Amino acid sequence: MRLRHGLRRAARWLAWIGLGGLLFVLLIIGIFRVVDPPSSAVMFADSLANEQRRIQYEWVDMEQISPWMPLAVIASEDQRFLSHWGIDPGAIATAVEDYRRGRSLRGASTITQQTAKNLFLWNGRQTIRKVLEAPLAVSLEIVWSKRRIMEVYLNVAEFGLEGGQAIYGVEAASQHFFGISARNLTAGQAARLAAVLPSPKRFSVARPSPYVQSRVGWIQEQMDQLGGLRHVATLR
Length: 236
Description:
Largest sheet: 3 strands, mixed
Structural class: mainly alpha
Distance between the termini: 62 Å
Number of domains: 2
CATH superfamily of the largest domain: Biosynthetic peptidoglycan transglycosylase-like
CATH architecture of the largest domain: Orthogonal Bundle
């Protein structure tokens, strides 16, 4: 009897803790709808794990980002970004089917899911992270506009590790790799930045491998097929 009572009490405490955590995260999501995040969970974890590593990061508003950049990441990462509600069942089904056919298991995370992961969670392929990522992504879609999701995504995404510096955000990446502001990125430069997003510590913008170069070409083709800058007109 005591054991059963203790288990019920522990379950109630866990439920209250879970509810409190959920309300806290929803509060933060609401705040970040209008307040620009000063950092992210992934940046924080990166700096803790590597004390000698310097984080290069500079926030810029959407108006200060070349329209080629959101188009490039949509073409590369999530071509149904403007129509889904944070999770793309079609992309998940395609990834599962590819795996069943013997191909390597690839990610099916939307831009919204990646934003939730970068902002609140951690890198890695753990199941628990994916479970937490999905409701966070839906919450972002409910509270934020697509424009805000894209703005935050481009500012907290990791673009590489160069010379002991972890480069986060499109402004820091533009300045580091091209010596220009994010507002001046060309279509080709935007595609080159987007090409490393699946694995920015493995791929290099400065020294693109043949694989990255082929991805750049593919991304540019997809940018054209999506309709060019007209596709992202609602994000401006």
